[in-house]
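My main concern about presentation is that the manuscript never shows what a single data entry looks like. In essence, backbone conformation is discretised, so a fold becomes a row of integers matching the chain in length. An entry of this sort, consisting of the sequence and the corresponding backbone structure tokens, reads as follows:
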Amino acid sequence: MKPVNEELQTYVEQHILPLYDHFDKAHRRDHAEMVIRQSMQLAERLDVDPDMVYCIAAYHDTGLCEGRDLHHTASARIIRQDGRLRQWFTEEQITLMADAAEDHRASANRPPRTLYGRIVAEADRYIDPEDIVRRTVRFGLDHYPELDREEHYRRALQHLREKYGRGGYLRLWFPDSPNARRLESLRQIIDDPGRVRRLFDEYFPD
């Protein structure tokens, strides 16, 4: 697979990744960099354009600047409206990238429309069991400061079950990916509320 265009990479690093510095703690620049890294790893064995894969991953959560509920559609709009991208991509490619960003959300009620959408959707789900619990606690602290400790715990456990638990809404698009094995490990933790509680207490500030 060819390397990512250096001018595109410079533009993203200088103008797009800094946007993540202003988001909640679970969606900072390190999250965007992780999604880029995992997207590129998945792309190595697929017939896709590496510049498009890189760009989709970099932009996938930029719509958080307009709030979480519709951030996926806002991210798609940001891609469509960024005139600089036309320096490297055709209108058809920009449409594909915007669609992929819009389709990445785990709670979407339909599968991604394209291979590019499946790549970023999978890459957005780095399933490190303990890190998932830590990010869930962080998100609750940032977005629900009015809750007390026990309410935060109940919210975290409910979220983990609804998203990652057996029958949860999270879907993986590459069954042979490392995420599939890690998801099973996470589900074993979720099946044992005592383990969730120990991790929660470790990450919740005293």
